[in-house]
Structure formats: structure tokens, C-alpha cells
Design brief:
about 325 residues; EC 2.7.1.121 (chains A, B); glycerone kinase activity (chains A, B); homodimer; Dihydroxyacetone_Kinase (chains A, B); alpha/beta
Chain lengths: ~325, ~325
């Protein structure tokens, strides 16, 4: 295992210390129980947004804490759900009197622990709603998950719901926007290599030098099939078609096209994939009106990528365009 | 070789097509001779900024084209200097009547081809000045380079000189700011693994499973020494101390601390490195007043990172903070 770390046990704690030192005006980091909150939290009169999950997917979620997006992120150990304790602490820290929305990727541990935390917060008088993100079309049930997994579409939900909260929508409205985005977003991924979890010390799965895993999850969970390495255009087609057929997306739709790197894939390769995806959408009469390309939901150093397509309307577009100021997404402010 | 590409010969051309499709309002991509320019180029009455070099270091330079930073970027083949032709084309495309500054990383091929291009542009009546970036303290002369190499400090020069041009400074003043930043910025890097150039098909160098290369260049050129894998804190110390001793940086200085990923290193690891670097600077009485953490000057999928320290004053700080709108850096607008 070749990593830029000290003790594998301290990876998350030391990284969080780095986040605190790197972004002092933007976020406050609480070491125990570990959570990251907006430096100006709680924002009075605004719905609070909390997300979280296992670490190793950075910048998700800590990199999306700030104006116009999340109020707090709760990082668990690498690839492991956070316990209810830090989720409760984060929920209390961001409660500005208008309630808190939990944005939860659909993994069994995450869902259970966020539910428990919501009950505990409610017992302290904080109204909590949750949206469970399940945008991955690759498999129905999988390792760690009943139903579809939550993957890169989470970023789009955090941004758009965050903008709704920032403009002053109430808890019901913010939750409804988040559910609407989840209903209109679809993703699927591919792995070329496996990630290595620091405390495990070995790659999460084995994969041949000439093999790729189609429909991979962000923790290296198995996907739909393993095939031989192919040209990028064919790989894109293999994951884009199931995405488009699932909603389904149709001619005349306006969409946000998001090509997400899983960590170890160079940006030139992501743009090659974006190019093919944009061509396929154009051929089908689907208009790409917003775009995102880069490493936003990663799986440590795994080489691979995912494609996410979100059907837009005027409201979602306006919320996507709204100002945001976080470590990993920043514009308009 | 496991890459998300089609034909290795088409990597740069197809990636550029992806950039054009992903950022249509921001940049215009010319396929032949290949260059990326601001969508609103030329900006009349503003000094134009052009940078470039081999591809494979993305987002450098194309990701930094836009308001407040570069007017154009000229991507060569992977790890290979662009020829004079596209540099001339980019220079002409961004000439708004106030002259053009070339920002050139110190590699022999880059320097020669930018010089030739400057002569050709001058023959067409465009005034051109150049700043040669040589921030890498690792080695004096190296493969491809006489003198020190230009590495991650280039991003800071492009941002700060770009802000000076955007506020209306004339060519002499913009060049002077760029030279000033180059005089006050120092960098050094480390590799854990080697990158593979697509058309080569093999790793650029061989390195043992328990070895790291201290002082690596961004094309995998040899550095100062090869040592066994160590804890992150010790690795940071190995490259930070030569940086601090070189300028030298001293107690009371205010600095921008930039921890740059080389492509394949997870963000958690970059924050662990940032944490150690910030601690060392604090112990020496050096104030970290601005920060940057992420993959900005990469070497394809190489695992590794570099540290860059820039001594700030009020003017440089104000220019760093100035609004910027590019694919890879965006704030204040």
C-alpha cells in the first residue's frame, strides 16, 4: 500500500485537521464527534442541510459545506457510515429554527444511522426531514444496499436543495426540491482499478490488467458485469444508455451532464468521456444546458468515472446557477 | 496501460473537443493549430496572457483560461512542448492592442518555441513579453531543463498576473508582477508512482513498491533522491524545508500555502500533507494567510504531490483575491 498518510487509524482525523487549517473562514471542524459545519452556522431562519457518509469520497461531503449548499457534513471512517452521535451533533449545530434536511446516500448503514439521529434530534425539538438518494441505475440491490445506491447525483441534490434553502424555502419545500432532483437524476459508473482502504492495506477487489467493472459502486461494490478494456467511447456508451433508458430521458429534454472522476483518472480522460457523452445526447435530441466535469465523488485513488444526467427545468436550472461558496464548488460570490 | 481513451494519438484532440463541449460560454477551442481562448477574446485594451506547454498536466493550462486569469492556453502533445505555430495563433487571438505576456514554464522546448513565437508575433506588430517560471527548488539543471524547472507555482503567477491585467495594468506592469511572483514562489514535489504517457504505453520510470522519488518533476524527471516510503509528515518535511531555506522564508512572513496533487493522490491525503505543512510554518512564525489544496498541476495519474509557498504582500494578496472565472478556479464572480 503506497499512500501519503501517517498512521492508517488517523487518516480521517488528520485530514479533517487539514481541512480546518486550509479553510478557516469557510468551515469550522469539530474533532469529536467529527463533523464539519459552515463557519457562520447556525444560520437563523434558514433550513439547515446535513449530509454525510463514509470518508474516502472527497470532496463529497465536506467540500460542499458553505453558503448555498450544505450547512454540515458528517464524515465517517473510510467507506464506513458515521454513527448517529456526530449526525445529531451536526444537526443541532446547524438548526436555525426552521428545521433540518438530511441528505442520505442509500446505503443501509447510512440510512439507519441518519434515521436514529433524526429521532434523537426530534426528541430535542428539532424537526428533521430526510431525502434518500438512489440515483445509481447499475443494480437494484447490492452489497451494503437495499434498492439502488446513492452516488454522484448526490452533489447535484446538495447544490440545488442548498440553493432552495439559501433563498428561504421552508423545510417542506426544500425537501420537495431534493426529492424532485432525486427523481430526475440517474448515474452509472465504471472502474478500471480498485481502491485501497488505508486500514485494510489491500485493494478492495481484484481486477485484471485488461478488465473493467461496469456499474461499479463508489466503495468498489460489484456492478453489472466485468468486460475487457475497451475504447473510451464504447465504455461511455455502456453506461450512458442504461442511464438514458431508465428515466427515460427523451428528445427535447434539457439536462445537466456531469462526468465525475473516481479519483485516479486524469482530467484529459474525463473530457474524452464527456465528449462522447455529449455527442450521444446530441444525437438523441437531448440538450446539454449545464455541465460539470471533475473529481467530485471519488473512491480514494480508484481509476474510473461515472456519468450523471439530471433532467432540468427552469426552476432547477435557476437553483443550480445560484451562488455557492464551498471548498469544492464556488461561483457567483 | 489502463486508460479511458480511444486512440492514443487522439488523446489531446478529443480532450479539447470535450473542453469545448463542456465550457461553451467560457472558452473557444480552436482545433488546428490547437489552442484554447477566452470566449470573449480579444479583450480590447487589456494585456493578453498566454501560457502553454505539454498536455497531461490538466487543469494546467486550459482550465485557467477565462476572466481574471489566462486569455489563452496552448496545449502541446502529452508531455511535449507546443510548436511555435499554435503559440503565434493564440497570441494573435488575444491581442487587444496592449500587448501579450507569455507565461512559460522553464523547459528547454517550451522556452525555445515561445521565443520563436514571440519573434513571429512581433513581426506582425504584436508586442510580446515573456516570464519564465522556475519555482522548483529540487534540482538546478535536469532532464529537459537548463536551470530550475517551472512547476506548480505557475498557477499562482497565472492568477496574480491575470488579475493585474484584468484591472488594466499595462504590459510592463503585468510582466513586472509576474516576475515578482516568480521571485517569491518556491516549490518541490514527490512521486509515489509513475505516470504512463498514452502513446508510450509504459510507465515513464520504474519505482519500487516501497520507494518514493523526492524532488520529482511534473514529467517524472528524476529529483534529488530516492528513499523508502515514509509517513506523510516526514515526506512533507523533506520537501518543505528546502523550499523554506531557499528564498528564504522567515518568521513574520505572510504566505500562500499551496498543496498540489499530481493526479492520482486522494484529497484526504493532500489535506494530511497540508496539515503538516501548516504546522511547520506556524512553528517557524510564518503566517499562512491564503491557501490552495487540490489537483491543479498534475502528471496524468501519477500519485504524488508538491508543496508551493508564495511570499505575499498586500498587493499580491489583493490580486490573488480578485475575481476569477475559469473552469478550474472560480470565485468572486
Amino acid at each position: 500500500m503506497k499512500k501519503l498518510i501517517n498512521d492508517p487509524k488517523n487518516v480521517v482525523a488528520e485530514a479533517l485537521e487539514g481541512v480546518a487549517l486550509a479553510h478557516p473562514g469557510l468551515v469550522t471542524v469539530v474533532a469529536d464527534p467529527a463533523h464539519i459545519v459552515r463557519a457562520d452556522a447556525p444560520v437563523q431562519g434558514k433550513v439547515g442541510l446535513v449530509s454525510g457518509g463514509g470518508s474516502g469520497h472527497e470532496p463529497l461531503h465536506g467540500g460542499f459545506v458553505g453558503y448555498g449548499m450544505l450547512d454540515a457534513a458528517v464524515p465517517g471512517p473510510v467507506f464506513t457510515s458515521p454513527t448517529p452521535d456526530p449526525i445529531v451533533a451536526a444537526t443541532k449545530a446547524v438548526d436555525g429554527g426552521k428545521g433540518v434536511l438530511h441528505i442520505v446516500k442509500n446505503y443501509t448503514g447510512d440510512v439507519l444511522n441518519f434515521e436514529t439521529a433524526a429521532d434523537l434530534a426530534l426528541a430535542e425539538g428539532i424537526e428533521v426531514r430526510a431525502v434518500v438518494v438512489d440515483d445509481d441505475v447499475a443494480v437494484k440491490d447490492s452489497l451494503y444496499t437495499a434498492g439502488r445506491r446513492g452516488v454522484a447525483g448526490t452533489v447535484l441534490i446538495e447544490k440545488i436543495a442548498g440553493a432552495a434553502a439559501q433563498r428561504g424555502d421552508d423545510l417542506d419545500a426544500v425537501a420537495a426540491i431534493a426529492e424532485k432532483v432525486n427523481g430526475q437524476v440517474r448515474s452509472m459508473g465504471v472502474a478500471l482499478t480498485a481502491p485501497t482502504v488505508p486500514h485494510a492495506g489491500e485493494p478492495s477487489f481484484s481486477i485484471g490488467d485488461d478488465e473493467i467493472e461496469i456499474g461499479i459502486g463508489i466503495h468498489g461494490e460489484p456492478g453489472r458485469e466485468r468486460v475487457g478494456l475497451e475504447p473510451a467511447d464504447q465504455i461511455v456508451d455502456r453506461i450512458l444508455h442504461p442511464i438514458l433508458e431508465d428515466l427515460p430521458f427523451a428528445s427535447g429534454d434539457k439536462v445537466l451532464l456531469f462526468v465525475n472522476g473516481m479519483g485516479g483518472t486524469p482530467l484529459v480522460e474525463l473530457y474524452i468521456a464527456f465528449r462522447r457523452a455529449a455527442h450521444v445526447l446530441a444525437e438523441q435530441g437531448i440538450e446539454v444546458s449545464r455541465t460539470l466535469v471533475g473529481n467530485y465523488v471519488t473512491s480514494l485513488e480508484m481509476q474510473g468515472f461515472s456519468i450523471t444526467v439530471l433532467k432540468l427545468d427552469d426552476e432547477l436550472t435557476e437553483l443550480w446557477d445560484g451562488p455557492v461558496q464551498t471548498a469544492a464548488l464556488r461561483w457567483g460570490r
